[in-house]
Write a structure and sequence with these properties.
Blueprint lengths: L9 H24 L11 H13 L2 H13 L3 H5 L5 E6 L11 H7 L3 E6 L30 E5 L1
Parallel strand pairs: 1-2
Antiparallel strand pairs: 2-3
């Protein structure tokens, strides 16, 4: 029986998944990462396999160190120190790091920041895939080439 992936696992769950069976964990993680569990999702198995491969190429200690950094480090001062214009792009359906926990907070901290919110966009927003290559990608969620975004300036 296949294990179900819980999208609300947090850093402890991610660490446990990597320690227990990182191969299956990275396969399962592609579902919420690319919003494969959402209606209209069009992410190829090849894209999901490439994500899995990238995860498997990371050294075990490096993966655990990465999890520690993204879950425990406070980057507030780093964001406040930006002194050049910045673009912050996020999807409004990011199941890995909800927009309220990242982009909406970041745009308040970064001077001269512009926030683009992509309707239906996932955590994998910046990686083009099959649905982004069609001529109708401008109306598809999850495509940075999409013109379907809201613009907010700090």
């Amino acid at each position: 029986m296949a294990r179900r992936f819980s999208i609300r696992i947090g850093a402890r769950g991610i660490r446990a998944g990597v320690r227990q069976d990182r191969s299956q964990f990275f396969k399962d993680l592609t579902t919420p990462f690319y919003n494969v569990n959402r209606e209209g999702a069009n992410v190829s198995q090849g894209m999901r396999d490439a994500f899995w491969l990238a995860g498997m190429q990371g050294g075990f200690k490096a993966l655990l160190d990465c999890i520690k950094q993204f879950s425990e480090a406070d980057f507030t001062d780093d964001l406040k120190a930006f002194d050049v214009p910045a673009l912050i792009a996020d999807g409004d359906d990011d199941q890995i790091v909800p927009i309220a926990n990242a982009a909406l907070r970041s745009v308040e901290l970064v001077k001269n920041a512009e926030l683009k919110i992509y309707k239906g966009g996932s955590h994998g927003l910046g990686q083009p895939h099959a649905s982004c290559s069609s001529s109708s990608s401008s109306s598809r969620p999850n495509c940075c080439a999409s013109s379907s975004y809201s613009k907010i300036s700090a």
